[in-house]
Design a protein that fits this description.
Blueprint (H helix, E strand, L loop, with lengths): L13 H4 L3 H22 L1 H10 L20 H6 L13 E6 L9 E5 H18 L6 E4 L7 H13 L2 E3 L6 H10 L4 E4 L1 H13 L11 E5 L5 H11 L2 E8 L4 E7 L6 E3 L4 E6 L13 E7 L10 E7 L1 E2 L11 E2 L4 E2 L4 E3 L2 E3 L1 H10 L3 E10 L6 E8 L11 H16 L4 E5 L14 E3 L5
Parallel strand pairs: 3-4, 3-5, 5-6, 6-7, 18-21, 19-20
Antiparallel strand pairs: 1-2, 7-8, 8-9, 9-14, 10-11, 11-12, 12-15, 13-14, 16-17, 18-19
Helix pairs in contact: 2-3, 5-6, 8-9, 10-11
The structure holds zinc ion.
Zinc ion (ZN) binds next to loops.
């Protein structure tokens, strides 16, 4: 890392981000009581849910009393599609966003003016922690449209007063031209797209470090420390993680500071809990489990105890950066992503870590799960990174065996490794599709 300067990063809202835990809890309780009553009074879904559970808004007297309330899941959001979970009157809605719906009915969320303000505040906190100031240009290469990524980053940049360039994703040649000719100071996109941009610069004979970027805020997909190392080495800038989901508000629910020891949750707006996804029990601090969020201030579509399916853990200790807000660790998996192959549970991330740890391989890869006969098979397609591939590794057969051995050590079952031609595997211009499951479960 060459271009990172610690004096560039700052705390956007010290009053909130550094408040004492005691004051924060008081604020959270006040807001929790309010949102539960607001949802109960304005959303028939919550009214019925709480009546059935025998709980009334007035029963919430402490933060722990949140445990009296039932969880809600994506299924509930689908059942109330499109707008039955909205609490604010329609004339107060100013914007609508939606999930892609690739796994079923999409989740639609309407935002009030107040919600858009909260969202901008949260992403501004994240951008400040990478070092975005008023004088800066922020290249937003997340998708715009119904997807929350692009808009969230833009509102944050504008809240700071910086110039947001709404590049959106795709059109890579244009992105490269803009990054060179209209030099952005910061890049916001998915980590896989940032890697693709770096590769595209290299392919065009340019060192990505020559781009005058000062920092990158990457999210909207799961990534690993190995990808961070690659991104930081390629661009020579700090790569920080931003997390969020449409159901809660979009990106900015939590963001990583430059210390990089977890993502600070905007706890004054989003109340987190970690539960055991099987028993639904709330787990003690530091334990890994599924993260559940309650929106404390959102008025359009409040979600109360929403199960995200994202697996992480929370640390409540004060951070070295000075913030007191809780930090969640990098998402280590999703119960949805979990693959069961030959009866063994495999997270694609485990395979990715192996690939990213090998300099001889490019970051593009694909995992194909099939069942040619009665047994499952995993094929991992990888590409050699020509720049780092030394002639001493000319024995490709041996090299494939080495990769297969490392993957087997990581996941516990054998895989078939296929070497693909350089630049032949699909690159994503949005969220990467890494796993193709060809098995027929019908
Ligand atoms: Zn911090």
């Amino acid at each position: 890392m060459t271009k990172f300067k610690e004096e560039d990063v700052y705390i956007f809202n010290p009053e909130r981000e550094c408040m004492s835990r005691e004051d924060l809890k008081e604020l959270q309780l006040r807001r929790l009581k309010k949102v539960v009553k607001y949802a109960y009074d304005n959303v028939p879904f919550y009214h019925n849910l709480y009546d059935e559970a025998g709980v009334k808004p007035g029963d919430i007297k402490t933060l722990e009393d949140i445990q009296l309330l039932p969880f809600i899941t994506k299924d509930d959001l689908r059942k109330t599609y499109p707008f039955d979970l909205q609490a604010a009157p329609k004339e107060d809605w100013v914007e609508v966003h939606s999930t892609s719906g690739t796994t079923g009915i999409p989740t639609v969320a309407a935002y009030t003016k107040k919600d858009i303000g909260i969202w901008g505040e949260c992403t501004a906190r994240g951008l400040a922690s990478v070092g975005v100031h008023k004088k800066d240009i922020v290249n937003v290469a997340y998708g715009f449209g119904l997807f929350t990524g692009g808009h969230g980053a833009q509102y944050g940049a504008q809240k700071i007063g910086a110039l947001a360039v709404p590049m959106s994703s795709g059109n890579t040649q244009k992105q490269m031209n803009f990054l060179k000719d209209f030099p952005a100071d910061f890049l916001c996109c998915t980590p896989s797209y940032a890697l693709y941009l770096a590769e595209s610069f290299e392919k065009a004979g340019m060192d990505p470090k020559a781009i005058p970027l000062k920092g990158g805020l990457y999210g909207a997909e799961m990534w690993t420390e190995e990808i961070r190392q690659k991104l930081e080495n390629k661009f020579g800038i700090s790569a920080q993680n931003i997390y969020g989901l449409t159901e809660v508000i979009g990106p900015g629910v939590s963001t990583e500071c430059h210390i990089k020891e977890g993502m600070h949750i905007a706890e004054d707006h989003f109340y987190p809990e970690i539960i055991d996804p099987k028993t639904l029990e709330v787990l003690p601090e530091g334990t890994e489990g599924e993260i559940v969020f309650t929106t404390l201030t959102k008025t359009g579509m409040p979600v109360i105890r929403y199960r995200t399916k994202d697996i992480t853990s929370i640390n409540y200790e004060k951070c070295k950066c000075g913030r007191t807000t809780a930090r969640m660790s990098r998402i280590t998996g999703r119960s949805d992503d979990m693959l069961k192959v030959k009866g063994v549970i495999v997270f694609p991330k485990q395979i990715e870590e192996v690939i990213m740890s090998m300099d001889e391989l490019s970051p593009a890869y694909q995992i194909i799960v099939s069942r040619p006969g009665t047994l499952d098979e995993i094929e991992v397609q990888v590409e050699i990174d020509q720049a780092n591939f030394s002639d001493s590794l000319i024995n490709l057969g041996e090299f494939k065996k080495t990769i297969a051995k490392k993957i087997k050590e990581a996941i516990g079952i054998g895989v078939k490794v296929t070497l693909a031609e350089p630049f032949s595997l699909p690159r994503s211009e949005g969220k990467a599709v890494r796993v193709i499951d060809q098995r027929d479960f019908s």
